[in-house]
Amino acid sequence: MLEIIMIVxxxxxxxxxxxxxxxxxxxxxxxxVWRTISPPPLASLAGEIVLVTGAGHGIxxxxxxxxxxxxxxxxxxxxxxxxxxxxxxxILREGGSAWDYKCDVASRDEVKTVCAKVREEVGEVTVLxxxxxxxxxxxxxxxxxxxxxGVFRVNVFAxxxxxxEWLPSFIKAGRGKIVALSSIAxxxxxxxxxPYCATxxxxxxxxxxxxxxxxxxxxxxxxxxxxxxxxxxxxGLAQHPRIRFPSLNPVTSPSQCAAQVIEGVRRGEEVIxxxxxxxxxxxxxxxxxxxxxxxxxxxxxxxxxxx
Length: 307
Fold this sequence. Notes:
By secondary structure, the chain is of the alpha/beta class. The protein has 9 helices and 9 strands. Strand 4, helix 5 and strand 5 (176-181) form a beta-alpha-beta unit.
C-alpha cells in the first residue's frame, strides 16, 4: 500500500512540475511578445573596452567605428596591418579612442601574445566581437585540404582562441559581452559554400553551447552571449551573389549591418539576423517538411556562384 502511495505521490509531483512548466512557457512567451512590441532601452557602451577581430575591412571596420562613436574604447585586430591601422586612425580622427594590433587570429600563439599586450597597454576587454572570417566560393571538390583547414582555422578555431583568452576575465568580473558573427549560411545552407557553411554552423553550435553552459544553474547571468546571422553584406567576400528577389532580400551595406548588430547587442539580444525578418523566415523554413523546404529554397534561388 505504501508503495502505491509513493508512486501516486511521484506522479502528482510530476504533474505539478509540468503545470509550472506550462505556466512559465506562457509567461515567457508573453514577455517575449511584449519585448518585440516594446523593446528594452539601449544600454550605454561608454567606457567599455571592445575588441573587434577583422577590424580592417567590411563589417569589422564599421563595427569598430560605430562602437567608438558610442564612447567605447576599441581594440582593432586584423592580419592586415595597413587597413587595421587605417581603421584606428579614422577613429582617432573622429575623436574616439582606439588601438591597433596586427594579429593572425588563426594562430593560438599569436592570439595569446597579442592579448597579453592588450591587457598591458589597454586593459581588460569587456566586449569581445569575433568577426574575422573568410569565405571561398567554389564547389566542394575544388577545395583542397589546405583550403578546408584554413577556413576552419579563421572562422571557428580563432573564436575559440579569443574566448579562451577573455572569458575568464568576464567570469572574474561577473560581466561581459560576447558577440560572434556567424552567417545566414549557418542557418540555411547553400551551394558553393560547403566548408564555409560548416564553419558557420559550427559557430552557431559554439555560441548556443556556451549560452547554455553560462546560464546553467544561473552560474553567470550577467555575461551576455549574442550570435549574429547576416544575409549577404557588401564586403567583397561574395563576388557573385545570386538573389532572385533583391527587393525582398536586399544586399546590406557594412554600415547598416554594423548598426543593427550594435543595436541588438545594446538591447541584450541573443540572436540577431540582418535583416531582422530573416529570423522569422528561418523559423518558418525549418518548420517545413524537408522536401517542401527544398522546393521553397529552389523557388527563392538565393546563394552565391563560383568566384
